[in-house]
Design a protein that fits this description.
37% helix, Rossmann fold, 6-stranded parallel sheet
């Protein structure tokens, strides 16, 4: 069954994570994605190891696990577009593509004649998506932007970590490059919107996506908490700024998450925990009161939760309809029966003779399902085939390009 985007061809000039994440989503949805990489070195993340994936003999390859997370369903074309001949080849490819992804510094591709205005003249239907740290305008536009830096500058780290006064207090980044991932998602939404608009207008457009913009947009309720009050929210560890109790609690054998979303759930929890009187206490009877008296309530709940194991709490609270859950490491995550039932871990045969483990797309489309056609490619794995099949080049022409270092 063809994918939802099987009629779309993407030229992916991006590296590292945000751009490749967008390209992988488009590829999962059926698009043909051509990943353009530097000859000899390729995407930076190819070398961000260990760990590395295994070859057919079970030995470490030179393919970093990091690269494998964002580059399936792509073809790798090595091409040096700092050379005039490489620029010419990019333009020939653009003429046959629907979407171009890039994450170079602002103005970086203009020096090679590969900026939006130059390529729009070749292909007016081209959707050109630029992903940068700070966007195409503003005083920071020419600065490089990295996820960790943006998490700090964009406010996320001020909200993440233990509260002041606690042991280990201090700002903390999220455990994955979340700003990059969210930027890749927003870029995908922008590309899909532009493709839809092109169906009406017949012309493409330029999409400007910035990590900083995305980070601030995704502050969500915390941003609104500040805008509504003028007071910057503080770090609360695992607690919630607007809902109590909504955090981790100690059990007899570890910790578990209690996520009470309303007053009825709080009463049910108190009944299960044998502290029903707290649900009638005026300090705790409503969420507004519980937020105001958080410092008094949480120690009382912690005293009650330590007498049962995590598994016991989950069993009892699920029966009572109170949201709760364990705090799993990744081994426990991929062993979870729900995760296994949803097929969130699978393997793809790779060009090394072995297989590459992958995390499945969360998109489930009934009529045009996601398809996993190929593992992340080896560097330049498809160069010859693409030049032959897409640009009609002969063996001699390809050999000449290789001899001059263009590919």
């Amino acid at each position: 069954m063809p994918g939802a985007l099987s009629h779309i061809r993407v030229l992916d000039l991006s590296r590292v994570l945000a751009g490749p994440w967008c390209g992988q989503i488009l590829g999962d949805l059926g698009a043909e994605v051509i990943k353009v990489e530097r000859p000899g070195s390729g995407d930076d993340t190819r070398h961000w190891g260990p760990p590395y994936i295994k070859d057919a003999e079970g030995n470490d390859s030179r393919e970093a696990a990091y690269f494998q997370s964002a580059n399936r369903n792509k073809q790798s074309l090595t091409l040096d577009f700092t050379q005039p001949e490489g620029q010419r080849l990019v333009r020939e490819l653009v003429a046959q593509c629907d979407v171009l992804l890039e994450n170079f510094k602002v103005g970086g591709l203009a020096a090679y004649g590969l900026d939006y205005e130059s390529l729009k003249a070749i292909n007016p239907r081209l959707i050109y998506c630029s992903i940068t740290g700070f966007g195409q305008t503003g005083p920071y536009a020419k600065r490089a932007g990295y996820d960790f830096m943006i998490q700090g500058l964009g406010g996320l780290m001020s909200l993440t970590g233990r509260p002041e006064g606690e042991e280990g207090a201090g700002p903390m980044k999220v455990g994955v490059a979340l700003t990059d991932i969210l930027t890749g998602l927003y870029a995908t939404v922008g590309v899909l919107a532009a493709l839809n608009q092109r169906e009406q207008s017949g012309i493409g457009q330029h999409i400007d996506v910035a990590l900083l913009d995305v980070q601030i947009a995704c502050l969500a309720n915390q941003a609104m908490n500040y805008l509504a009050t003028g007071v910057s929210p503080k770090r609360l560890g695992n607690a919630h700024p607007n809902i109590v109790p909504y955090q981790d609690f100690p059990s007899a054998d570890g910790n578990f998450i209690l996520a009470v979303g309303n007053d009825g759930q709080f009463r049910k929890f108190c009944e299960v925990a044998g502290i029903a009187q707290l649900a009638d206490d005026p300090r705790f009877a409503s969420n507004k009161a519980r937020v105001a008296h958080r410092a008094e309530l949480i120690p009382l709940l912690r005293q009650a939760t330590v007498f049962k194991t995590t598994a016991q709490w989950i069993e009892l609270l699920e029966k009572a309809g109170v949201p709760c859950g364990p705090i799993n490491d990744l081994q426990q995550v991929f062993a979870d029966p729900q995760v296994q039932a949803r097929g969130l871990r699978f393997d793809l045969p790779n060009a090394l003779g072995g297989s590459t483990p992958q995390v499945a797309s969360p998109l489930r489309l009934s009529e045009t399902p996601v398809a996993y056609r190929s593992a992340p490619p080896l560097l330049g794995q498809h160069t010859d085939a693409l030049l032959h099949n897409l640009l009609g080049m002969s063996e001699a022409q390809v050999a000449q390009l290789r001899e001059t270092g263009v590919i």
